[in-house]
Structures are given as structure tokens and as C-alpha cells.
Here is the input.
Amino acid sequence: MQHDHEHHQSVTKTSQSVTDPVCGMQVDPNTALTLDHDGTTYHFCSDRCRDRFRHDPASFLTPLKTPTTRPRATRT
Ligand SMILES: [Zn+2]
Here is the structure.
């Protein structure tokens, strides 16, 4: 038994990735842009996403309670 296996080829550290709250993209916290809001640090894939979040953070933090994207067709 030899344990000198120092090849880190298939390192799947997906636990390090965080979600961009604006576009929902998985970003690397080490390289992503960050913004501190209400005591929590959020990560963004780009400056554009961060800027959108900064303008209206509530719209991105609010959980999807009301599915406004799919209105019911039963309205007359
Ligand atoms: Zn983004």
C-alpha cells in the first residue's frame, strides 16, 4: 500500500460554488465579485449583476412566493 498519490486531477469541490442571486449562475467565491448587504456577503458573476442587485436587492432576495411569470388562464 502506497499513499503517495498526490495527483489532484478529479477534484470536484462543488461545495465551494455559490449562487449569483441575480442570474442564478454558479460562481466561484474566490473569483466572483462580492457585495455586502444586510450583514450577508453575496457573490456575483459580473459587475452588471452586482449593480442590479445593489439597485434593488429586495427583488432578488424575495423568495418566489407568487408565480407572476405564469398567470392563471382562468381569469375572465
Ligand atoms: Zn450573474
Summary: The longest helix spans residues 47-55.
